[in-house]
Amino acid sequence: HQVAGRAGRAEAPGQVLLQSYNPEHPVMQALVANDLEAFLAEEKAQRLPGHWPPYGRLAALIVSSEDALEAARAARDLGLLAPNLPGISVLGPAPAPLAMLRGRHRHRLLLKAERGVPVQPILRDWLAAARLSRSVRVQVDVDPVSFL
């Protein structure tokens, strides 16, 4: 919607092009039809059963090191220590979308929690149990806006 509005601001009419591997997907169809209500309904139908935001909580953990093997090992070890609690699941580790940033190799884990589960204390206890090298960094982003 915002892109379409910006495309038509100049004197000449604008055009929006969408590229998708799955143009039949209901979200893509809603975008093409400029149907905000259909888009929101489809997103809710997808997110609600799986407790994805805003119907659940997410925390992204980025494990990084200048050494690729050390980063992978630390992420794996952190994954093995993942909390096994009701209403919690941990996805990963996997290479982060930006697998290398500023000379550091990065791996990501996602903690997914049902609404109402106290995420911060769980993260604190999880990280406290980890014995990581001083050269390994763990960045935690609760309710991330971006996944890069």
Q: Report the C-alpha radius of gyration, rounded.
A: 20 Å
Please give the largest β-sheet: 4 strands, antiparallel
CATH superfamily of the largest domain: Ribosomal protein S10
Content-based structural category: alpha+beta
Kindly provide the name of the CATH class of the largest domain: Alpha Beta
- Major sheet: order of its strands? 2-3-1-4
CATH topology of the largest domain: Alpha-Beta Plaits
Poorly predicted spans = none
Strand composition percent: 25-35%
Query: How do the SSEs run, as a string of H and E?
Result: HHHEHEEHE
Overall shape: globular
CATH architecture of the largest domain: 2-Layer Sandwich
| Number of helical segments with 4 or more residues | 5
What's the topology here?
Blueprint lengths: L1 H6 L18 H7 L3 H15 L5 E10 L2 H13 L7 E14 L2 E11 L4 H11 L7 E6 L6
Antiparallel strand pairs: 1-3, 1-4, 2-3
Helix pairs in contact: 2-3
List keywords for this structure.
single chain, 148 residues, 35% helix, 2 domains, 4-stranded antiparallel beta sheet, Alpha-Beta Plaits, 28% strand, 5 helices, globular, alpha+beta
Outline the structure in words.
The chain has 148 residues and is of the alpha+beta class. The protein folds into two domains: 14-50, no CATH class; 56-142, Ribosomal protein S10 (Alpha-Beta Plaits, 2-Layer Sandwich), CATH 3.30.70. Helices cover 35% and strands 28% of the residues. The protein contains five helices and four strands, in the order αααβαββαβ. It has helices at residues 2-7, 26-32, 36-50, 68-80, 119-129, and strands at 56-65, 88-101, 104-114, 137-142. Strands 2-3-1-4 form a four-stranded antiparallel beta sheet. Helix 2 (26-32) runs antiparallel to helix 3 (36-50). The longest helix has 15 residues, at 36-50. It is globular, with a radius of gyration of 20 Å. The two termini are 23 Å apart.
